[in-house]
Write a structure and sequence with these properties.
By secondary structure, the chain is an all-alpha fold. It has a domain of 111 residues. 78% of the residues lie in helices and 0% in strands. The chain is built from six helices and no strands. It is rod-shaped, with a radius of gyration of 32 Å. The termini are far apart.
């Protein structure tokens, strides 16, 4: 009697080849869903990381632009300069070259260099030597036009960066959405 009970119990848990096939199909489908979910999550993370890197470049350029109005040679200014140079170099690889963002950033760097030069010359003790070469009002006019040029370049950068920094949505994984379009 005991042997027949064991056989009955054994028979209850034995699976037919059809049942094994169905179980394999279910496991395969679940595995596929996990792979698709991971792929969408990885894609969303990549987009978010790229957005963060681009925004960091924008912040570095903005800080550099604003620091040009109060150039004082402090450690903070030097750090801003280092961050800007790093952002300038990275911009060549992160943005579409056709947008010319790296060229605008380079223009800001060159214009700010001129601004710092003129500010330094105005603040020097030997101002008279410098003013012999250029009238003070003309000097201030040049300084003002350089600042306007830099502000104009900054506005152009903001316009060009808009398409990169408009954070409307990042598609991640949603259980009900399985759209396989390519971005």
């Amino acid at each position: 009697m005991q042997i027949s009970t064991v056989l009955i119990i054994k028979r209850k848990f034995m699976l037919t080849s059809t049942e094994i096939s169905i179980a394999s199909l279910i496991v395969s489908c679940v595995t596929f869903l996990v792979v698709v979910a991971n792929s969408k999550i990885a894609n969303a993370k990549l987009k978010l990381d790229l957005y963060n890197k681009r925004f960091d470049i924008y912040k570095a350029v903005l800080d550099f632009h604003n620091d040009g109005f109060v150039k004082d040679g402090t450690n903070e200014s030097k750090n801003i300069d280092r961050q800007f140079i790093k952002a300038f170099r990275e911009s060549k690889f992160i943005f579409n070259p056709e947008d010319g963002i790296d060229k605008l950033i380079n223009n800001i760097m060159q214009t700010r260099s001129k601004i710092v030069h003129y500010q330094t010359e105005l603040e020097k003790d030997d101002l008279e030597k410098f003013l012999d070469r250029i009238d003070e009002s003309e000097h201030r006019s040049i300084l003002s036009s350089l600042r306007l040029e830099n502000s104009s370049n900054m506005m152009k950068i903001e316009i060009k960066l808009e398409k990169y920094l408009m954070f409307k949505e990042i598609d991640g994984w949603n259980f009900w959405s399985f759209n396989f379009k390519r971005n």
